[in-house]
Amino acid sequence: MQKLRWVGLVSAVLATLVAGEGDAKGDGPAKPAGFANADPADDMIVGPPVPRDDCEAALKAEGIRFSTARLGVQKRKTMTCGSEQVIVYHRSAAGIAYDPPAMLTCNMALALSRLDAVVQEEAKRAFGKRIVRIHQLGTFACREMKAYPGWVSEHSYANAIDLETFTLEDGKVISVLRHFDKADAPAKAEGRFLRQISQRAYDENLFSNVLTPFFDALHRNHFHIDLGRYRTDGTRG
Ligand SMILES: [Zn+2]
Question: For every residue of the chain, which 3-state class applies, written as one string?
Answer without folding.
Answer: CHHHHHHHHHHHHHHHHHHHHHHHHCCCCCCCCCCCCCCHHHCCCCCCCCCCCCHHHHHHHCCCEEEEECCEEEEECCEEEEECCEEEEEECCCCCEEEEEEEEEHHHHHHHHHHHHHHHHHHHHHHCCCEEEEEEEECCCCCECCCCCCCECHHHHCCEEEEEEEEECCCCEEEHHHHCCCCCCCCCHHHHHHHHHHHHHHHCCCCCEEECCCCCHHHCCCEEEECCCCCEEECCC
